[in-house]
TrEMBL record:
This is G-protein coupled receptors family 1 profile domain-containing protein. SUPFAM superfamilies: Family A G protein-coupled receptor-like (SSF81321). The gene is CNR2. Putative odorant or sperm cell receptor. It is a multi-pass membrane protein. Gene3D superfamilies: Rhodopsin 7-helix transmembrane proteins (1.20.1070.10). Keywords: G-protein coupled receptor, Membrane, Olfaction, Receptor, Sensory transduction, Transducer, Transmembrane, Transmembrane helix. The lineage of its organism: Eukaryota, Metazoa, Chordata, Craniata, Vertebrata. It is found in: Membrane. Pfam families: 7tm_4.
């Protein structure tokens, strides 16, 4: 994938910058990155195994959680090769095709994750506002349709972007400001009129992340309105507690995303180190924290973990 030779086809090669000013310490910086990637991969893989193996987790909210864990695994595996290649081997070059492929998977999976968060908000909305109809509304078919819609939406809206970028000449140094290929970053390096491509990128953001945020906010406004009408404070607290995991994941996903978008669009003189930090936080913290949040906040996941580890200890003791 990295350092692909495109000279025969006269295709451009892009260069990653790593962490500017800390090139000599890259090998040491790679250690925490390796640990974080390992935790993210293992944590999400464990969630997938638990949801598949434990029958009491065969519920819509945990199916959505499994979809989220699968998306996070894809995001981690999409960025890990380029990030670790920079820090381990000082490999900074990537060909156009490889860069477009990485960009497609990163943006598509980010859109899918946003869509799954909307589906999880809908799950909490139904569970709190219409608990008697929960099993009738959120059937296996409904879960499959919502998950499939998130995937199809992301892939369909993202598909034109690589073709847009292939039509542009790249005549500069082609130095990317992140440790992976990011559409606005690549578009800024293109030579030519990028008005339409930039506008389509904005439409993509509005049709995915902006719409999703509106749906999530509307869902929680309705949830809060329903909770406020409950008779006892104890029931209010229990209802809010069921939403705590999802709210944490929404904040973990959208805050770095919004911060990175603002940095790209409105702050041209920002420190490169801040750019690098925010870009890595955007795609690394979500896969890292999602399994940790659910492991700490969800009683069903905690019970499944204890059961699995207890069984393993019993088998090891025998």
């Amino acid at each position: 994938m990295l350092a692909f030779n495109n000279t025969f086809f006269n295709w451009p090669t892009f260069s990653f910058i790593g962490i500017p000013g800390l090139e000599a310490a890259h090998i040491w910086i790679s250690i925490p990155f390796c640990v974080l990637y390992l935790i993210a991969l293992v944590g999400n893989a464990v969630l997938l195994i638990l949801v598949r193996a434990e029958k009491n987790l065969h519920e819509p909210q945990f199916y959505f959680l499994a979809m989220l864990a699968l998306t996070d695994l894809g995001l981690s595996l999409s960025t890990m090769p380029s990030v670790l290649a920079i820090f381990w081997f000082d490999v900074r070059d990537i060909g156009l095709n490889a860069c477009l492929t990485q960009m497609f998977f990163i943006h598509t999976l980010s859109s899918v994750e946003s869509g799954v968060l909307v589906a999880m908000a809908f799950d909490r909305l139904v569970a709190i506002c219409a608990p008697l109809n929960y099993t009738k509304i959120l059937t296996h078919y409904t879960v499959a349709c919502l998950s499939g819609a998130a995937l199809i939406r992301g892939a369909t809206l993202l598909a034109p972007l690589p073709f847009f970028l292939r039509t542009f000449p790249f005549c500069g140094a082609n130095i990317l400001s992140h440790s992976y290929c990011y559409y606005p970053d690549m578009l800024n390096l293109a030579c030519g009129d990028i008005t339409f491509s930039s506008a389509y990128g904005l439409v993509f953001v509005l049709c995915t992340f902006a719409v999703d945020v509106v749906f999530i906010l509307a869902s929680y406004m309705k949830i809060l309105d329903t909770i406020m009408k409950l008779e006892t404070q104890d029931r209010n607290w229990r209802s809010l507690h069921t939403c705590a995991c999802h709210l944490c994941m929404v904040l973990v996903f959208y805050l770095p995303l919004i911060s990175l978008a603002v940095l790209h669009r409105y702050t041209q003189d920002t420190s490169p180190i801040l750019y690098t930090t925010m870009s890595n936080a955007y795609l690394l913290m979500t896969p890292l924290l999602n399994p940790l949040v659910y492991s700490l906040k969800s009683r069903q996941i905690q019970a499944a973990l204890r059961k699995r580890f207890w069984v393993q200890r019993v088998i090891a003791g025998e």
